[in-house]
């Protein structure tokens, strides 16, 4: 009788171990890296400027700019995104320097605050049956005089049929948690 009981316990132990490893694997679907953040004043306005698109997804930078603004706003911060009135997102993807010029002219008219900009490194659905979403981005916070204060990067992947926007928001939340708002 004891040998039957021991034989039944071994598979349960293995099953528990496998379940634990699976949970660790599920939790390890994102990475963040950043330098230590100085204390930043949360009462100052954050000006979201054009991001650079280094991914192979057209117009990914426009999506990320809006998501960054939404995440920062949800944290109780005052956020303003540069106006995109004169230059369409399509044209900005083809000629990013035009969008930069337009945004710099707008920024010159703003009062004190912080600049938020960065780069999109990956913004895609991976190939395969499930087509998992994968994102990678860098955020940089600077003074209006372009003096860099903080830099961080995040990457995250999801499961098949999961929205790339959802994964992007989670990656942005992960990296913005590293910023020290006093």
Question: Would you give an account of this structure?
Answer:
This protein has helices at residues 2-27, 60-74, 89-94, 96-107, 164-176, and strands at residues 30-34, 45-48, 52-53, 79-81, 113-125, 133-143, 148-157. Residues 17-28 have low confidence and may be disordered. The chain is α/β, with parallel strands linked by helices and 182 residues long. β5 (113-125) and β6 (133-143) form a beta hairpin. The radius of gyration is 21 Å and the shape is globular. The longest helix has 26 residues, at 2-27. Strands 1, 2, 3, 4, 5, 6 and 7 form a 7-stranded mixed beta sheet that branches. The protein is built from 5 helices and 7 strands, in the order αβββαβααβββα.
Strand and helix map with partners:
Elements: H1 2-27, E1 30-34, E2 45-48, E3 52-53, H2 60-74, E4 79-81, H3 89-94, H4 96-107, E5 113-125, E6 133-143, E7 148-157, H5 164-176
Parallel strand pairs: 2-4, 2-5, 3-5
Antiparallel strand pairs: 1-7, 5-6, 6-7
Report the uncertain regions: 17-28
DSSP summary, beta strand count = 7
Overall pLDDT metric: 87
Shape: globular
What proportion of the residues form beta strands (DSSP E)? Answer: 25-35%
How much helix, percentage-wise, in residues? 25-40%
Could you give a short account of the major beta sheet?
7 strands, mixed
Encode the helix/strand succession as letters: HEEEHEHHEEEH
Number of helices: 5
Span of the ends, CA to CA:
64 Å
Radius of gyration from CA coordinates = 21 Å
Q: Pairing-aware structural class of the strands and helices?
A: alpha/beta
């Amino acid at each position: 009788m004891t040998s039957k009981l021991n034989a039944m316990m071994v598979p349960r132990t293995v099953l528990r171990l496998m379940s634990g490893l699976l949970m660790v694997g599920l939790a390890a679907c994102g990475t963040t890296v950043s330098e230590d953040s100085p204390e930043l004043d949360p009462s100052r306005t954050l000006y979201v400027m054009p991001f650079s698109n280094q991914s192979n997804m057209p117009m990914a930078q426009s999506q990320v700019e809006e998501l960054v603004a939404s995440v920062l706003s949800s944290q109780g911060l005052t956020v303003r995104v540069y106006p995109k009135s004169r230059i369409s997102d399509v044209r900005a993807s083809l000629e990013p320097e035009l969008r930069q010029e337009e945004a710099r002219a707008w920024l010159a008219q703003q009062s004190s605050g912080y600049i938020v900009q960065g780069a999109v490194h990956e913004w895609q659905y991976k190939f395969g049956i499930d087509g998992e979403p994968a994102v990678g981005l860098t955020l940089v916070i600077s003074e209006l005089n372009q003096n860099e204060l903080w830099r961080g990067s995040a990457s995250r992947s999801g499961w098949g049929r999961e929205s790339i926007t959802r994964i992007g928001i989670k990656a942005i939340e992960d990296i913005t948690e590293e910023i020290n708002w006093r």
